[in-house]
Design goal:
The complex is a heterodimer.
Chain A (H helix, E strand, L loop, with lengths): L6 H17 L2 H9 L6 H9 L18 H14 L5 H15 L2 H13 L4 E4 L15 E5 L2 E12 L6 E7 L10 E7 L5 E6 L7 E11 L4 E2 L6 H36 L1 E2 L2 E2 L4 H29 L5 H26 L10 H13 L4 H11 L3
Chain B lengths: L6 H17 L15 H17 L17 H13 L8 H13 L2 H12 L5 E4 L15 E5 L2 E12 L6 E7 L10 E7 L5 E7 L5 E14 L3 E2 L5 H12 L4 H19 L1 E2 L2 E2 L4 H28 L8 H24 L17 H8 L10 H12 L5
Parallel strand pairs in B: 1-4
Antiparallel strand pairs in B: 2-3, 3-7, 4-5, 5-8, 6-7, 9-10
Helix pairs in contact in B: 1-3, 3-7, 4-5, 4-6, 7-8, 7-9, 8-9, 9-10, 9-11
Classes of the chains: A alpha+beta, B alpha+beta.
Chain lengths: ~375, ~400
């Protein structure tokens, strides 16, 4: 038991923090909110050169061979900097499922180019039913001519506009319960019958509606076993969930830091507002929430990295961190008063992303139900 | 970040569990549920604590020269956790936890020889004499006086909220020795025999109807020079160090886990309107939220412990733990009461009371958790001022 970072993790943390402070200040974040792409491909390439994209992929596939814990150290820094990047789409929900369930040939083909940043992908999982439960997967793929034909609509697909390929979760059987009969198919973004429509979101990230109309792919498009893809998807989503929690820890930490700083400097009634207990106590609650989030998140990261059954730990991390980060950002606004409510002040950038993080990969209610089952209810 | 236990630590945990299974009275905390102030509880607690003392486990984290076993930090942590999960009847925990270390740090050789063995064996019970009727959160304003007279100190004043005072052999207390100095710099730390003439104890009845704590009156109490611990007028600083020892524990999350386990079991076995409580989505959400908060508390404790395991003194993360855990236990009590409905009002150990009325009792006693040992408001001030550097 040791809740401090290792020397290697500290090094990764400080180098990431330095890089992002220089490359992704809030001026960059604001520019990317207005940008057509929504992130900087050049900066993503630089991050890939630092080894971020392949951080947790094995060296045999062009990765750096670090564990998921290090990836979460990095994600906390990305959260702090609100780094606009295709990390979730390309790495956690595209590269990772291929690593977890792909054939040797697929791993050889995809992982090195993902790590190098020369190929982007994304997972098309959720649908208008808006759930991460296996029962939400209704887009169908029919076996035809030795391949598959896909029809249906996916929603909330991250960065579909820059993806070279989609990994599409499809329903291939209705037998044996909702977790059975799900398959994963690789679909080139320019395949005939694929069309994408952008969504406008609270956090200015890039999410899309993706429609598949008689989209045909070959037999080699299948990732993992036919009808048996759910465990792959579940594991990838578990990792992405915890990575999102780590980002929210970073988001909450900065909103908290800004608030303490503001409370020390903002003078009303002839004294800094931070001298009032009403403000002090808010700040104390905020740091407890942020620290609690950090350690419950890293416990989940550690459990996943150790290959343990981590359903309970992942759900606890997401349920707690989702709400804690939102409360911290809300308190930050209260401490900042009117100025925090303006677009020109940076706090709104964090507040909006806290809500985005809260609902992605399931909100607190969803994850509490998982915890309820895990404690025997 | 490493959340794992070594094989030795796991084996040791099992050893503690086996010990508890063998040594706790039959039906402990299940069919046999006692008030911590009940005479029978005190008798059992003295017996059980004596067994710990005989094995050296009561002060296992102390250096061997003072009657400890010099255990590695985490081993001691694991023992505390298991004892709390089992609600083992232990009395006089303030001795090993912070009075003993304070004597080891500041005491003379004579004081160490005189007091440490009794603490280590669990034989001497100590009561804390800090708070006064007019000095609660503002403890440094305390007015109990100690005046030098020849070879003696003469003590006059009153203490309050002194837990187990009516059972205690000795009192560690704070008294003003320099009324002209700034308030923090005129206080000294004394070790007083409760049998000294002029000391009287009056139990106070708490909200749950039991003798939890006491008033202690000092009327011309004459004690020898050696009753002073450490340097004269430095008592405040010694006491506040001991207070931060007090706020470090895994005990609260472990205790909360035990209560949650009871509630989960109850929810699965209890039907209401044709369904078990465990099937009620509201109950599921509330109990899950408690499980989550308990694990957050556990992680916060591991964090404090990581600092302590390196022999460093924890900063504001210790009061953060105290705030979070004490408030969590109150929320847990409320979740339990809400589940029990009409049954929740039935008193401890009475007919029809579910879980022997443990939740009713917890609901009442947990009120003190956010007050004793520094209120939640004082803890938040400490976090904000010492931890975050906000202006006073």
């Amino acid at each position: 038991m040791d809740l401090s970072l290792t020397e290697e993790q500290e090094l990764l943390q400080s180098s990431a923090r330095d890089f992002l402070a220089q490359k992704s200040p809030t001026t960059h974040v604001r520019a990317m909110e207005e940008d057509d792409i929504g992130y900087s491909p050049e900066l993503w390439k630089e991050a890939c050169e630092l080894g971020w994209a392949g951080l947790m992929f094995p060296e045999a596939y062009g990765g750096a061979g670090y564990s998921f814990i290090e990836l979460c150290v990095l994600m906390e820094e990305c959260g702090r900097a609100l780094f606009p990047s295709p990390f979730h789409s390309a790495i956690l929900t595209f590269g990772l499922p291929i690593l977890l369930g792909g054939s040797e040939a697929q791993k050889q083909k995809y992982l090195p180019v993902i790590s190098a940043g020369t190929l982007l992908g994304t997972l098309a999982l959720t649908e208008p039913s808006a759930t991460y439960d296996p029962s939400g997967i209704s887009v169908r793929a029919e076996a035809r001519d030795g391949g598959y034909v896909i029809n249906g609509t996916k929603l909330f697909v991250l960065n579909a506009h820059t993806a070279d390929e989609f990994l599409v979760a499809v329903r291939t059987s209705d037998e044996g319960g909702p977790a059975n009969g799900i398959s994963l198919l690789l679909v080139p973004a320019d395949a005939p019958g694929v069309s994408i429509t952008g969504l406008s979101t609270i956090a200015s990230d890039r999410q899309f509606e993706v429609e598949f109309t008689n989209v045909a792919v070959g037999a080699d498009a299948l990732v993992g076993e036919f009808n048996q893809a759910w465990p792959i998807i579940k594991s990838a989503i578990d990792h992405a969930t915890v990575a999102k929690c780590a980002e929210m820890v970073g988001i909450g930490q900065v909103a908290f830091d800004m608030s303490v700083d503001y409370a020390k400097n903002r003078v009303q009634f002839g004294r800094p507002i931070g001298s009032f207990q009403a403000i002090k106590h808010k700040c104390s609650d905020m740091i407890i929430e942020v620290d609690g989030s950090r350690f419950i998140t890293f416990r989940a990261a550690w459990s996943l990295a150790a290959g343990l059954d981590a359903d309970r730990e992942v759900a606890m991390a997401k349920a707690w961190t989702s709400e804690a980060c939102r409360r911290v950002c809300a308190n930050a606004h209260q401490i900042h008063g009117g100025i925090g409510f303006t677009k020109e002040y940076d706090l709104q950038l964090y507040f909006r992303r806290a809500k985005n993080g809260e609902v992605l990969y399931g909100d607190a209610d969803v994850h509490r139900e998982v915890v309820a089952q895990a404690i025997g209810l | 970040m490493d959340f794992s236990w070594s094989r030795e630590e796991e084996e040791f945990r099992q050893e503690i569990r086996d010990f508890l299974k063998a040594e706790l009275p039959p039906g402990w905390n299940d069919t046999l549920v006692l008030d911590h102030e009940d005479d029978e509880y005190i008798r059992l607690a003295k017996e059980f604590t004596g067994k710990l003392g005989a094995k050296g486990w009561f002060t296992a984290h102390w250096p061997t020269e003072y009657g400890g076993l010099d255990w590695p930090f985490w081993q001691h942590f694991i023992m505390n956790e298991e004892m709390s999960i089992a609600d083992a009847p232990i009395i006089g925990g303030n001795g090993p936890k912070f009075l003993g270390p304070t004597i080891i740090h500041y005491g003379t050789d004579e004081q160490k020889a005189k007091f440490l063995p009794g603490i280590a064996k669990g034989e001497t019970l100590w009561v804390q004499g800090y708070s006064e009727p007019n000095s609660g959160s503002d403890l440094a304003s305390l007015q109990t006086r100690a005046v030098e007279d020849g070879d003696e100190w003469v003590i006059n004043g009153q203490k309050i909220w002194s837990s187990y005072g009516h059972y205690s052999d000795w009192c560690f207390m704070l008294a003003r020795t320099d009324p002209d100095a700034p308030k923090h710099r005129g206080i000294s730390y004394f070790l007083i025999d409760m049998k000294t003439p002029g000391v009287t104890v009056r139990p106070l009845i708490n909200i749950a109807g039991t003798k939890g704590f006491n008033e202690i009156f000092f009327e011309n109490v004459r004690v020898p020079k050696e009753a002073l611990l450490g340097e004269k007028n430095r008592g405040w600083y010694m006491a506040t160090t001991t207070l931060s020892y007090e706020r470090t524990a895994i005990e609260a999350p472990a205790r909360a886990q035990r209560i949650l386990n009871d509630l989960v079991r109850y929810a699965k076995l209890t039907k209401k309107n044709g369904h078990t409580l465990a099937e009620d989505p509201n109950v599921r959400q509330r109990l899950a939220q408690m499980a989550i908060e308990i694990d957050v508390a556990r992680c916060l404790s591991y964090r404090v412990a990581t600092t302590q395991s390196r022999d460093e003194i924890p900063g504001p993360e210790a009061p953060a733990n105290k705030v979070f855990c004490s408030e969590l236990i109150q929320r847990l009590a409320q979740v339990g009461m809400q589940m029990l409905g009409l049954y929740g009002q039935l008193e401890f150990n009475t007919k029809w009371a579910p879980l022997k009325g443990k939740i009713e009792r917890l609901y009442l006693t947990s009120v003190s958790g956010t007050i004793a040992g520094g209120t939640s408001e004082i803890q938040r001030n400490i976090i904000a001022e010492r931890g975050l550097g906000l202006p006073r």
